Amino acid sequence: MKIQINGRWYEAREGEMVLDVLRREGIDVPALCAHEAVEPYGACRLCMVEITHEDWGGWKGNVTSCLYPVEDKLIVQTHTEDIIELRKTVLNLLLARCPNSPEIQKLASEYGIDTTSFVPREDADNCIMCGLCTRVCTQMGFNAISVAGRGYGREIATPLKEAPPDCVGCLACVKICPTHHIQYEDIGTTREIWGRQFELVKCKQCGKALITREFADYLIENRDIPADYFDICDDCKRSGTARDFKKLVHWEEKEEAEEEVSA
Amino acid sequence: MECEMKIDSPDKLNAWKEECLQKDAKLKKKVMVCFGPGCLAAGCREIYAKFEEILAERKLGDITLESFKKTGCHGLCEKGPLVVIEPEGIFYNRVRTSQVKDIVEKTLAKGEIIERLLYKNPKTKERVLKYHDIDFYKKQTRLALRNLGHIDPDNIEDYVMRDGYQSVAKVLTGMTPEEVIDEVKLSGIRGRGGGGFPAGRKWATCRGVESDVRYVICNGDEGDPGAFMDRSIMEGDPHSVLEGMIVASYAVGARDAYIYVREEYPLAVQHLYQAIDDAKEHGFLGENIMGTDFSLDIHISRGGGAFVCGESSALMKSVAGEVGEPRAKYIHSVVKGLWDKPTVLNNVETFANIPLIMNKGGDWFRSIGTEKSTGTKAFSLVGKVENTGLIEVPMGTTLREIIYDIGGGIKDGRKFKAVQTGGPSGGCLPEDKLDLPVDFDTLTKAGSMMGSGGMIVMDDHTCMVDVAKYFLKFLVDESCGKDVPCREGLYQLHKMVVKVTEGKASEADLQLMEHLSKYIIMGSLCGLGKSGPNPFLSTVRYFRDEYLAHIIDKKCPGGVCRDLIRFEINDKCTGCTACIAPCPVDAITGEKDKIHILDQEKCTKCGACYAVCQFDAIDII
Amino acid sequence: MKPEIDVAELKEIISHSPQKPSSLIAVLQDIQRKFHYLPPEAIKETSSALGVPLSQVYSVATFYSAFSLEPRGKHTCRICMGTACHIKGAPMALEQAEDQLGIKAGQTTPDLRFTLEVVNCVGACAMAPVVIIDEKYYGNVRVDKMKRYLDGVRDED
């Protein structure tokens, strides 16, 4: 099927969201709470677009493109005056929430907002409550962290604000966080995150820390991964393969050289 | 319950109804003690206990305790505790425990009327004997509220006697689901929870979705502060809700239905459980209802204390035991709702109307009200009116008729200032809008909305900025916090309105607030955020002067915002010392019979002295 | 000063509802009613009994106003802050109560005797302002009577 975006027609696939098409075609629409690894959530509202259709009798609406399924001949506008003003308002509000976040400052600046018009949060951290960390944690199957509370005081928390028993130290939350708010520390063979300490498995060859014991055990048990997979790190595995491959190549040369000598 | 058998045919239902009517006719008198929310707060339990106590000793001929009924909300809450004696309709107001004996000895035993317990018309000063003759009641059309005040909600026979479950018998044995939906469509009934979506169309869409399972849910969350219509129906006439749900479940093809009751209504849960048990016992719920192959179970799901769970997608999450976070409704819950199955969600009052529509026909229903808003609407009329209470009027009745003809006008001789409707999603309308008809669309055009039926009347001692602040605080507390415009935007909007009440805002702030409001409405995920700025926008629209007085003059014309008012004792002070003790900071000093002195330095403007003074001796400046 | 929790009693309460995720809110309400708050053991036991991840039970427990993770007082004083009550002076009643008990709304007195709460409309709007102390309703509350209501409860202790 085809949908029209900002005046041009593009291919769209059944079952995908408007944002998927925007991303594929490189149309720049911000979306802080969306990520291809997890289901869309619709919390940041930055990806809002205006939609209409020839069958709708002139009716127009504003929807979050991350959650709106494509339909044949849908007409989309990504940068109307109101949409831009909405994004500015959202970024202005986020800047009040996280005044010290470089990512928010940059994005806000792109929309012409350098300081917030609102009252900044006290003791502000860089969490924008996009929910990506909790959603990816659920996606991974651990459900270690979740959203606690309601309204302005809402926060990402561990159960009972104690070290989460279900966390395996996989760092998916760290990697997906758009403002790099979540902290962790690897020192020697210990990883510390969310108030928990994990033992890091080391490569038997080079000694580099690979993965937490808990995460490794989980993958081995639940994802059909051989028990000795984490004994050697990927780099060493690659070096080993390269060495073996080299041996094969040199072996031919060695045969030639030996033949010359015996000739 | 004398009737042991299951009612599995219309004939058996009619026979039972006859039995109940005959039994009832044997009671020469009936004493209805109102147990509605207002009367409960006013002490009706003690009144009833006193009747029980006296009748345990006193023989009153053919009047026994069987003649006494604990009913649901009779309506005129302002005058509670209410005791109504049928069949005459003798209407006793503000009954005190000490007066119960007199009622027994004089009225019940000898037929003598106790004048001072009768309603007094505030204009003519005349006493009125029967409630039917009071304007408050005369001008109403009680349909959804038809049984409130006339039956004991825990007694299914009372319900059956008044045509209870007749529509179930008619529909299950004589109509197809499609015919039921057509009748509901014909009636034109729109959702009474405030959304106003045509119920018939909703049911039709749900039925049209291919699915093995469908659900019906009754929204008993009634979160709007100031609204108690649904509470009254659930507590005072629970069977009417069940009956409506049975018809709906048959029409859409649901095997299980849920009533979602907010956590703050434990009595509603109690009465509903009793009604479900009784209905099941008599075969109106469970397997093979009315001898057909239609079966239904109704379950109760309790809320956890969250206004946002009145929103349909959040409500369904809550029923499933999850956090009540709404979701984008690009795919409607009627298609994918509870546990992703097609679900019909309707309000308590909507369901209470269904039996009437099925019994009397869609044409009859649409003959009441207006063309686009058919039928009647229940309202909780509260605030600064003479007659606060629970009312029901045809759609199209004007605000003026409701507030003045039924409500009796403004209390204490004060002036009307505004009427707030639609709860936190609605707005305030001023005096020049009083002739607007109340229906789904007119008030919305004026910047408010009819909403679920809460109607709060405000007098001149109200600050409209303070009202906006109040509603915004409520919404900030209740926002689920998912999306930025609602969570961050309403918080900032509230903060700025607070600044106005403190006299610290500028005109530029007002512009920023209006701009922010526009984009909160555009960007929010659900109705809470989308309508959140309404209390601010409607008050700024109609009472802009008041905002400017706070901003430019640093004054609060309504005499409410503490940073901008002073309390002063004037020369009407008689020196009665009544105001000295209530002052939490001991700011008032004075001797008996001498004018008291208020220390402005200490005064926290709490208003305790003002509330207590009987002589109008304290001014708010 | 948190009281000891009888885990057997806790498990018994949990077993009353169907042991599946949709019972979560009802189970937590039963526990809240019995213990006057949700002790940490309640979060953990409910999680395993109903098959809901611990983090999700915690989310639900912190989302809904009915639940408290801190012990609540023996007596609860609820002041209705619905619109009708607000315009009839509920904020004054709240102030008086806060003054009398020495705590703010949402808090419990250090001796665990009183919890002061605000509620958003209990549906008795015609009798505004409304105050509920334990299960008893007081309508048309006069600000100067707040102290008397609270003192009355204290005497019964």
Question: What do these coordinates show?
Answer:
The complex is a heterotrimer of chains A (263), B (621) and C (157). In chain A, helix 2 (81-97) runs antiparallel to helix 3 (102-110). Among the domains of chain A are: 2-79, Ubiquitin-like (UB roll), CATH 3.10.20.740; 132-232, no CATH class. The N and C termini of chain A lie far apart (71 Å). In chain A, strands 2-1-5-3-4 form a 5-stranded mixed sheet, with helices on one face. Chain A has helices at 18-24, 81-97, 102-110, 132-140, 172-176, 213-222, 234-262, and strands at residues 2-5, 8-11, 48-52, 61-64, 75-77, 146-148, 155-157, 184-187, 190-193, 196-202, 209-212. Chain A is built from 7 helices and 11 strands. In chain A, a hairpin with an 8-residue loop joins strand 3 and strand 4 (61-64). Helix content of chain B is 39%, strand content 13%. Chain B is globular and about 75 Å long. The relative contact order of chain B is 0.09. The mean pLDDT of chain B is 94. Chain C is α+β, with helices and mostly antiparallel strands and 157 residues long. Chain C folds into 2 domains: 7-63, Orthogonal Bundle (Arc Repressor Mutant, subunit A), CATH 1.10.10; 75-156, 3-Layer(aba) Sandwich (Glutaredoxin). Helix content of chain C is 44%, strand content 11%. Chain C has 7 helices and 4 strands. In chain C, strands 2-1-3-4 form a 4-stranded mixed sheet, covered by helices on one side. The longest helix of chain C has 12 residues, at 24-35. Chain C is elongated, with a radius of gyration of 17 Å. The model of chain C has no long low-confidence stretch (mean pLDDT 86). Chains in contact: A-B, A-C, B-C. Chain A binds chain B through residues 41-45, 48, 62-64, 67-69, 82, 85-86, 89-90, 93-94, 96-97, 117-119, 129, 131, 147, 149-154, and chain B through 306, 323, 327-328, 330-331, 476-485, 487-489, 491-492, 495, 512, 515-516, 519-520, 522-525.
What's a concise summary of this model?
The complex is a heterotrimer of chains A (263), B (621) and C (157). With 263 residues, chain A is of the alpha+beta class. Helix content of chain A is 33%, strand content 17%.
